[in-house]
Amino acid sequence: MRGGGRILDLIKEVLQTSFRLFPWPTEPGLRRIGRPDRSSPVLLTGNYDLSVRRLLRVLEGHDAWLLVAPSGGINVWCAAAGGQLTTHQVVTALKTSGVADQVDHRRVILPQLAATGVLALDVFRRTRWSLRFGPVHMRDLPAYLASQEKTDAMRRVLFPLVDRLQMAVMWAAPIMLVLGGAALWLKPDWVLPLGLLIASMSVAVFTLYDRLGTARRGGLATASVAASVAATVLAGGSGLAIGAAVLAPTLLTALLTFDYTGSTPLEGGSHFEERKWSITLDTERCEGVYRCWEVCPEACFEKREEVRKVELAHDERCIRCGACVVQCPEDALFFQDESGARIEPDVIRRYKLNLLGQRSIEAG
Ligand code: SF4
Ligand code: SF4
């Protein structure tokens, strides 16, 4: 890439990382990476510009076909969970992009986080393309392509510091834009302290979020209100102190109590906590196909090779994404509540239903 292209790429990277809450669509279609031939791997992703550009960077030096399917310009995880990247989009992309004329094989690799919305079995029935779910993180793609093996580390969604900082930027940037713009207009000397306040709170929240726990988050938000009132009184009630006293706890409370379902891999939505739907395995039906093991982003399953079955060994980690339920060819997995009411796999598949968001669900 030339100097001008690199600068443009950097500007796009900063803008898109800062405003990831908004769609950034790129043109769908078939792209070449390097000099692919008829045996080169075919990868498929959504048409989220940030992901596509990062993917192209990760695969520099490799030869592959990249099929960009329409996903509403948003990332694969949100698109698959929200119904923008489904079996239909994948089937259409495979049938209309011309990729079948370019390769001799019929194997396509999708990001693992597409498994909530894209049914591998249906894609095969409708196109005869065999679909594999690759690693969660694109940084693992070169190793996966070289070995064709998905290690445990490649399957699990973690939330490392670099991802936490990106999340902090993503939430801080739009808030800064709105509040900073208002401050610039009303009180320009507040812009810098306000920016620092928002940035530091956002970084602190996303660095500590899962370590605080729900009860501590509520306590911290309440304590911040008390601390702000005390600081205002001590500061003699100046305009800046009053402004900070109003804004600081409001921001902190909003950041601490917002339901980040889907935007972080830390936990499921508050909805399922209230309803207590649990992932349940019918061991009798399990035939040891291991699709659930392959797609679970929280590594809830462990293989029991000796009996060709899985064990739901870490169900406490489950975020109710539904990926295992929709991919299991034996319908051995479903959601069940405390009363024994069930949401059957067919319902989850038919209505693109997962329990990640604020959804109202009645069993049956
Ligand atoms: S639960 Fe379903 S997907 Fe998982 S191993 Fe058993 S049959 Fe396969
Ligand atoms: S066990 Fe839970 S987190 Fe894992 S794939 Fe199934 S629904 Fe998703």
Describe, in plain words, how this protein is organized in 3D.
This protein is α/β, with parallel strands linked by helices. It has three domains: 3-155, Rossmann fold (3-Layer(aba) Sandwich), CATH 3.40.50.11600; 161-257, no CATH class; 270-350, Alpha-Beta Plaits, CATH 3.30.70.20. The chain contains 15 helices and ten strands. It has a five-stranded mixed beta sheet with strand order 1-3-2-4-5, sandwiched between helices. The protein has a three-stranded antiparallel beta sheet with strand order 6-9-10. α4 runs parallel beside α6, α9 packs across α10 and α10 packs across α11 (239-257). The longest helix is centred in the middle third of the chain and has 44 residues, at 191-234. The chain is globular, with a radius of gyration of 23 Å. The termini are far apart. Residues 357-364 have low confidence and may be disordered. Bound molecules: iron/sulfur cluster (2 copies). The site of one iron/sulfur cluster has 13 residues, from α13.
Strand content: 5-15%
Quote the distance from N terminus to C terminus.
55 Å
Which structural class best describes the helix and strand composition?
Answer: alpha/beta
- The main sheet orders its strands as 1-3-2-4-5
Main sheet record? 5 strands, mixed
Catalogue the ligands.
iron/sulfur cluster
State the low-pLDDT regions, or none. Answer: 357-364
Element pattern in H and E? HEEHEHHHEHEHHHHHHEHEEHEEH
The whole-angstrom Rg is 23 Å
The CATH architecture of the largest domain would be 3-Layer(aba) Sandwich
> Which CATH class of the largest domain applies here?
Alpha Beta
Q: Taking all residues together, what is the mean pLDDT?
A: 83
Tally of helical runs: 15
* Multimeric organization: single chain
Number of strands: 10
Total individual domains: 3
